């Protein structure tokens, strides 16, 4: 898989078996991918979560439009059987089946071995202990800790109270990477700042609980925080709601989430999920699919932060320049960003 090609600051970008699904036709007969069938199963929140899933949807749509592939997606309802959704696509002979989210990992490993003629890809896939490279399974992963370091530095530079917050969905290695990077970035620019952190739950539902997100954010604002970074999917909508109510600020995740709360979103830590999805589809079309885990970070322009005209009034140019300097230090190896936090 080729490195992502996103820019530093802003990464632009009913045939239901279970839940809600759709079939989308591909491009014209002359398109390179004509005849290739791509299936994608979204995580909780679906393609309209305006976050992680929406970014994957953008990549799928781009592949349909530019490569001419035929695409089908399935949106499982909460608690639905992801394996049934993936299996249905594989059994029907799709050329590539993509699972969006780390929760798909073990299932993708099982199905890839059961359907050796079908290629599989997992967003945020991390191999199960003891499982080696599976020839028809690619993992599309990101160094979220690096992007989170930059928005942590922004929070540390912008806080007035020297207290900032973090709201995660659930405490697992993936989300802990966000917290660890964020804490390190805050500490780099504001050693005497404090980071309050809280997690919404212990299973996948923690990504879709805005009420819980609002409660946790309100508690952190009450404790003195004046900026909160979330890595919690739709639960993050509650963080934005609390910021609006309190007149405080927030930092979005995965996509540019400024439109969710123009009053309050200072910046967003963005991941090139759309680019990763498009690239793995193009690799299948071009006959160069590569198994194993492909991890994208700042050096690959696979993560970044948003700095544009929309959020300029909330994010001063001088702060952007300081964050960009730290980015350059990370890429050059002068700063190593931790992936874990005690």
Explain what you see.
- The protein is α/β, with parallel strands linked by helices and 342 residues long.
- Helix content is 35%, strand content 22%.
- It has helices at residues 52-67, 82-91, 105-114, 144-158, 173-189, 210-222, 236-246, 273-286, 317-331; strands spanning 20-24, 37-41, 70-75, 96-100, 119-123, 137-142, 163-170, 194-201, 227-231, 249-254, 265-271, 292-296, 303-305.
- The strands form two sheets. Strands 1-3-2-4-5-6-12 form a seven-stranded mixed beta sheet, sandwiched between helices.
- α1 (52-67) links the parallel β2 and β3 (70-75).
- Mean pLDDT is 90; it is low at 3-20.
Spatial sequence of strands, sheet with the most strands: 1-3-2-4-5-6-12
User: Helical content, roughly?
Assistant: 25-40%
Structural class: alpha/beta
Oligomer: single chain
Summed over residues and divided by their number, the pLDDT gives a mean of: 90
Rg from C-alpha positions?
20 Å
Largest sheet report: 7 strands, mixed
Number of helical runs? 9
Strand fraction equals: 15-25%
Please provide the ordered H/E string of secondary-structure elements. EEHEHEHEEHEHEHEHEEHEEH
DSSP strand tally? 13
Keywords:
7-stranded mixed β-sheet; 22% strand; globular; 9 helices; disordered N terminus; 342 residues; 13 strands; alpha/beta
């Amino acid at each position: 898989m080729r490195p992502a090609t996103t820019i530093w600051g802003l990464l632009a970008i009913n045939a239901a078996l279970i839940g809600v699904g759709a079939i989308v036709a591909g491009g014209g007969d002359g398109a390179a991918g004509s005849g290739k069938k791509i299936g994608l199963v979204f995580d909780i929140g679906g393609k309209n979560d305006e976050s992680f899933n929406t970014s994957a949807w953008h990549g799928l749509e781009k592949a349909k439009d530019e490569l001419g592939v035929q695409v089908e997606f399935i949106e499982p309802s909460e608690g639905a059987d992801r394996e049934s959704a993936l299996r249905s696509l594989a059994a029907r002979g799709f050329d590539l089946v993509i699972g969006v989210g780390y929760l798909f990992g073990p299932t993708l490993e099982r199905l890839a071995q059961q359907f050796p003629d079908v290629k599989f890809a997992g967003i945020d896939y991390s191999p199960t202990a003891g499982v080696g490279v599976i020839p028809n399974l690619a993992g599309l992963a990101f160094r979220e800790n690096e992007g989170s370091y930059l928005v942590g530095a922004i929070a540390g530079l912008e806080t007035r109270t020297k207290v900032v917050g973090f709201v995660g969905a659930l405490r697992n290695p993936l989300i802990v990477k966000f917290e660890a990077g964020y804490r390190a970035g805050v500490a780099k620019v504001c050693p005497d700042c404090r980071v309050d952190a809280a997690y919404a739950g212990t299973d996948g539902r923690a990504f879709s609980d805005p009420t819980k997100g609002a409660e946790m954010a309100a508690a952190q604002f009450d404790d003195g925080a004046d900026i909160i970074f979330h890595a919690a999917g739709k639960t993050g909508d509650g963080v934005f709601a609390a910021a609006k109510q309190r007149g405080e600020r927030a930092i979005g995740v995965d996509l540019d989430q400024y439109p969710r709360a123009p009053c309050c979103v200072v910046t967003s830590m963005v991941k090139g999920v759309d680019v990763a999805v498009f690239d793995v589809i193009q690799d299948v079309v071009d006959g160069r699919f590569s198994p194993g885990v492909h991890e994208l970070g700042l050096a690959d322009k696979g993560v970044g932060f948003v700095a544009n005209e929309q959020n300029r009034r909330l994010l001063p140019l001088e702060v952007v320049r300081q964050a960009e300097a730290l980015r350059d230090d990370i890429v050059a190896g002068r700063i190593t960003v931790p992936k874990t936090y005690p």
